[in-house]
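pinging the channel bc i need a second pair of eyes. not urgent but kinda urgent?? the chain im working w is below, pasted from the shared doc
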Amino acid sequence: MRRAFLSIVLCMSSLSCIGQAISRDTLTILKQIEEVEIVQQRSSSFVETKGNKLVVNVQDIGNMPKFLGTSDPVRYMQSLAGIQTNNETTSGIHIQGCDDYQSIVSINGAPIYYPNHLLGLYSAFIAPHFDKITIEQAEHNGTMENRIGGKVDFETKHAQPNRFGMEGNIGLVSTDLTLAVPCGRKSTLYMSARGSYLNLLYKRWLKIEDTRLGYNFADANLTYAIHPTEKDEIVFSGFFSRDHISVADTSQYNVGVKWYNIVGSAYWLHRLSGGQWKTTLSYSHFSNRVGVNAMNVVVDASALWSSIDLKNRLNHRLAGNLYLSTAIDYSQYILRPLSFAQSGLEISLPRTSSLQYAEEGSIGIDLQHIVTDWFRYNIGLHGSLYYRTRLFGACDPRVSFRFQVAPDHELSIHGGLYTQYFHKAGLTGGGLPTDFFLPADSCFTPERAVACNLRYSASFLSGKITLQAEAYFKQIYGVVESLGNIMQLINKGFNYQDYLIRGDGRNYGLNLMLQKNSGVLTGYVSYSLGWARRKLPGLDGSQQYIYAASHERRHDLNIVLNARFAKRWNIGAQFVLASGLPYTEAKEAYFFNGQMICRYSTFNGAHMALYNRLDLSCSYDIIKKQDHELGINLSLYNVYCHRNQQFVVYRENLRPIQGTALSIIVPSISIYGKF
């Protein structure tokens, strides 16, 4: 029996390695407002820099090396300075050392809580459906949502096309198709869908020893855009993703893991004579479920998180060089942190946990003043209220100063206070979707942060070369960490709250990014030096530990190059060199009175080996016209077959297994087209 459950943990850990013609006067004013935010703009569209924001053109992602024939916007973002991931089996977005849940990921302003496939090898975003990605790494203004990290927003296509259009990609794991359908002169429908065929094509190879694996996923996007007047834009969008994993050994056990997202939103954008107003209404739902059936022992664990959000944004030019931005937001949350039922082992536990409800409201104001051609400042204030079992509130001031020290050189200083009203914890790592969200309450109060950063931006050779350097510091209070694991679900009387502890965090580091924006060869080099430290007490409250967060990559170097020549050929390359992730070494594990007892060394006291990888891509455009495109792509993932350590698991005798993921070269071929 013990062997069975330990094998389940081994298989689930191993799975993690298998696995985004208004009027002339109005146009002039809007252009002025946009120019207030733009510091420098690339001469070509790899990555554009707009103030504190990075804007990625999704269409350019297709020129980068593909993994299993698919272009992934999230993987592309993880190569940028200041944005990191755990490893290649996790598509979490960690901005400036924060956990992924501390940053908001959204589609047209609607939040997405777990947009991952293949345990993180893919994200759930179908690239052709989106136009651009806006990344706010350190947006110190009063209108930002209640998060202590950053913000990543995927903007769907909604421009009016001239005719019916179709774009798609056929890869080794999945196929996606996007349709653009004009619906009259003022409205357009965009539809995208993607499905996998892992079980169909690779069933005979989906094995770990004698254990059979099953996996499938699917995505769907829908966007309907209406332009009733020259000044108005109404966009409806929907998003759906679903995953199902099965691990089966008919003689001993079977495990099933499911998770899915459902998102619906609508926004109305109205252009004013001196700015614009936008209101967004959205619904977002995420749920996951883990089922274990081993030798007549059944464990069923699930969690869900839903939110209804109403957001209002107003950007307006008051007078002269004075600009005002306001935000009024309201959110209602419906959640079940962790619910489980258990039977067997002479134990029968009914399903635990019930639905919980919480409400959150906020108002923000930000004032920008352009004093001179070389100096401007922002002063912002963000106030919020939250209620679950008690009322919480916060008043967070924020300020920034920008100095144009030379025509193409800018220095900026930013600082502020931030509040977040929910936490996230989990029972496993490695990309498994068993994490659950926790609302702030009397036991686990809101997370708060004090943040500041210093940024230098420069442009050389008329924008052909750009440079960004940033130093940041963030002190976080109220971080929640789980010391439990999935094996403890089988313990009689298990209560996940008994394994949650509260502490503090500190993120600090340096980000550098050098870009070449024009010519036959374009690309960038990004380097991040960062620390993400956590200070948490022991379960008995008698000691405190300072350790590296599980996602901390001390050093992270990315070199991304793209070369286009002979009009039809495109060569892409990416090289990654990064520090190994921290992990916790196990000392011993045994069963006592039907309960498993584990003893570990210092939490995250050990580090995995240095990570490095080279990917190559070659695309040939068979047809390349203004409205028609057909081509073929060949990509090589992990060209020199480096065995990067991804995880550490232990067998019954605590013999460690140094796990590697994708330690061989992974070739892929795909056909892409646009008509």
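so DSSP finds four helices and 43 strands in the chain. and Residues 2-674 form a domain with the Maltoporin; Chain A fold (CATH 2.40.170.20). — does that match what u expected or am i reading it wrong
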